Amino acid sequence: MEIQFPSTITRVVFLLLMFFTVTESACNTADQEMVARAFHSVPNFNLSSFGHLVNQSNCSNPSIKNLNLTSMDLNGTVSWKFMKNLSQLESIDLSLNSLQGYVPGWLWSMKSLTKVNLAGNRFGGIIKVESFSSIRELNVSSNRFTNMVELNGFKNLTRLDLSFNELNHWPIGLSNLSKLEMLDVSSCNVTGNLKPISGLKMLKYLDLSNNRLSGDLGFVIRRFESLKYLNASFNNFSGVVSQGMLRRFGKSAFLHAGNFTSKLNVNTRNRTKSALNGSDSGSSASAHQLHHQRAPLPINDELDPNHKPSTKSSSKFKPFLIAAIVASSTFIILTTLCSILIYKRKKDHKKRNKWAISKPVQPQPFKMERSGPFSFETESGKLWTADIKEPTSAPVVMLEKPLMNFTFKDLIAATSYFGKDSQLAEGRSGPVYRAVLPGDVHVAIKVLENARGVGHYEAVAMFEALAKIRHPNLLPISGYCIAGKEKLVLYDYMANGDLHRWLHELPTGAPNVEDWSTDTWEHSTGPAISPATSPEKLSWAIRHRIAVGIARGLAYLHHAGAKPVLHGHLIPSNVLLSEDFTPRIADYGMVRDSGETLTTEFDVYCFGLVLIELMTGKSGSDECKSLVRKMVKEGRGVEAVDSTLTQGGCSVSEVVETLRVGYLCTAELGQKRPTMQQVVGMLKDIRPTSTSDIV
Questions:
Q1: Which residues form the domain of 380?
Q2: What domain count does the chain have?
């Protein structure tokens, strides 16, 4: 007899079988092992921290849906083949590492994959989907992808970031991405017009900045009714930009975007007749006709969106009266400004000329007329004291020229009693003086205020050890002097001073043949001496060379020895510039009493501040750093670029990309900052043609 089970029991058994099947599928996977194999040859990949990669589950070995390895200091090549069977993988985030190599085409076709972020690595090669892609968000910014990008299979994309790659041309198939809402192709060196994106009607965010695009921008942008954000700056566009577009996107969206004119929106009902005919009678004119009657306004002029053209005055004397008022006001303002400028130039003349230091003053005959202790006042009013009776009792040890016999007395003589006229700078670690010792030995002398508590023999050991560290981008100690508790260090003399003065105190451009401190208003009879100038400040190549040189010097300190040598106070005034603008780091490895725990990550942070200051021309304060980081994060880094660089015809995209390196170096968490070796690689990749110029 055939037994009939109730239908309810059958369904329960079936559901239990399905449950165990699904549980087995979800739990008994080898996803973690496959990822471990994929990153087995990648330095710094830590299997012990693998737990955050998987889903929270009661399974002992759950499947991986979200693979997040961002900012883990990974470098090397991923073995992608081991990730091919991660059937439930939904997102990959490998951003802000130094991974390299190619990305296989099958990765884009993984059925469950919807988000991929590879930004801030060194990936290159081809981006091409093998069949169909489910990816909705793709970020491959700041990599090495070229024009081999085909997007025909990425029809589900809503967000696409290709910025900071060397594409040169629009990607193939871009026009087919009908769902695209966000597109960033900034700093990709793209040429051509906007036809490939003209059909992307769903766009809400569009960044075209720092390319070589051309064509009528206004004609295309008017088609994007949903567009909320636009950046077309630094391109070669043409056409007419209306006041409505200026209000909609802001003037910064069109900064240096090409040869534009701006069309004013005029209220023809009330203004057009009087503007054209000078009265309320006569035929009306359209806004289009009015536009052709007026001269076009350059896009870089200050345009007021609420501006309305004024009517013609009935009084014929009113224009003359206005002109007279304007002329007299202008004269008064200009006279006042000139007076202020002349006063400031006179006041700063002595300071500016002090940094024209290619030829230090030769020491004059000197006779010591008293015994110690000797106290010296700095420009800021601080005192430092050499507690010795006889200045000849404190020898100067010349490490590279041991046969030269100098004493503290020679230092006093060469600096005119460490006078303010000889002082070059004064930082946290002490004042710096210039001097020419007997035998025409040009040196800079630094007083180490924070080493007063260091014993004599400990200081000697420290100086001897630092003297052995040699690198083209490090300024070696050429000698030292211990005078009581004061420790003085001697460095080779650098013709172009330090980076801080070069950036902020030397005027840009060719030397001015007129010296305002010697004009007839002061009745000076001496010859005019031009203040120091630095036309090299306009050169992006020189600033990039300086940035790479500083990075190389700091990388040598961190990685060349058995243990890292820390700087702890890397600031622009501790970077000296040679005659050919080779940067040399000074003041490294010195004992400090600040109580700070010094780390390589802190040095990287300080380098990031120096890099931001070098690219922006602004002081590397916390406020400046925060503002620049915000601009870079929002894709507005171009707004922070030093205007003198743009005058020199720099590659703005390269400067902005260098700012992004500063952004990475100043991350709040130390473990998210790159190493100095990685920084050197990133900077050299930005402008590889200039690396041969670096010593």
A1: 360-493
A2: 3
